[in-house]
Design brief:
With 133 residues, this protein is mostly helical. Helices cover 50% and strands 8% of the residues. It binds zinc ion (2 copies). One zinc ion binds next to loops. One zinc ion binds next to helix 6.
């Protein structure tokens, strides 16, 4: 089971991340990339600052506080969703459980472009196939 993308973004903005999202490494990596792009500093969130307006808030209050930033949250989540879906549609993995390789099916190069880390795969899809399109 996974939270929908918007809820996941909201929880991450409030400093929460869940162990079970490890299954969704691609989503995780996309959120990290998009946060960086929007200048969202996750280390600040952990110390209780709203990543959007900078106000100090109790950690658990941040989820509620973020309702004030509904528009920004929606915008960030829609960007995440677009990239996440693109990444998922062009991703092919192979290898044993602990040695998975990520392959981009959009690249026609031979041999195929392979990535050891999901972060590198996501970065590749965004910079080569997303931002240029
Ligand atoms: Zn705020
Ligand atoms: Zn590619």
């Amino acid at each position: 089971m996974i939270l929908d993308v918007k809820s996941y973004v909201r929880y991450r903005l409030a400093g929460f991340d869940f162990g079970w999202t490890k299954r969704y490494k691609v989503l995780r990596a996309v959120v990290t990339y998009v946060f960086k792009k929007f200048g969202i500093d996750e280390s600040k969130i952990k110390s209780g600052y709203c990543p959007i307006c900078g106000r100090k808030t109790k950690r658990f209050g941040l989820i509620r506080h973020l309702r004030r930033h509904e528009e920004e949250v929606n915008y960030i989540a829609s960007e995440v969703r677009k990239i996440y879906e693109l990444c998922r549609s062009v991703l092919k993995t192979y290898g044993s459980r602990d040695k998975i390789r990520y392959v981009c099916t959009l690249c026609n190069s031979n041999p195929k472009v392979k990535f050891k880390k999901v972060e590198d795969f996501v970065y590749h899809v965004i910079t080569v196939h997303y931002e240029k399109s």
